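Support reply, case 0932

Customer input (verbatim):
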Amino acid sequence: MIEFSHVSKVYGEVRALDDVSFTVEAGSVTGFLSPNGAGKSTALRVLLGLSRATSGSATVLGRPYAELDSPAYQVGTLLDAGAQHPGRTGREILTLGAMTLGLPKSRVDEVLDMVGLSAREGGRTVRGYSLGMRQRLGIGHALLGRPRALVLDEPANGLDPQGLHWMRGLLRGLAESGCAVLLSSHLLHEVERIADRIVMIGHGRVLVQGSVEELGRGRSLEETFLELTAGTGRHPA
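Our regenerated output:
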């Protein structure tokens, strides 16, 4: 389970997060939405120990990320699919990850197949990958250790319709196997199709949270989001 409990983060006079609380239960997908610059990325950084909360706590499986034993076995993360070394092949990147975790090379083949990258594609350098292929590789890297929780920032970027269909099936399957999935995306319609629950934040505060059905109430998720974020002068992210 992933839990934010009264998390605030202050930079000087800027309150990036203001008393943020929500949970992601095991066996579910939670969509995390905010306008650009409204706190979503800061929240993910706090969760993963890349930034320290000013107050409150963010935990994964009941503990701060930095205190987890072998965190890559517990939590799979994708924050920036473009951060992969362009001169290495997809297979090399996954192999290095597997070696770090003490996993057999056979796990690399399993993951390549899981994310839909062929042996030929796995043998290409990442500089020749499309954004969608980099997303698949990044998701694959997050899955190497068979984690119990996933934190994915904009994993749908660059995916074509076939790729989006694949991602929906993958994340739903992982959730059904007991994984807790926290998914951020600006593709509101896609989140609506994947997520069980939605958390929307603006100006660093939780605006609303609940199931997709509860938040929609006969309207699209986009209509609900735009109504809640009216006046921010920003677009969904």
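We compared this against your earlier run and they match. Two observations from our side: The two ends are 24 Å apart (CA to CA). Confidence is low (pLDDT under 50) at residues 232-237. Please reopen the case if you see a mismatch on your end.
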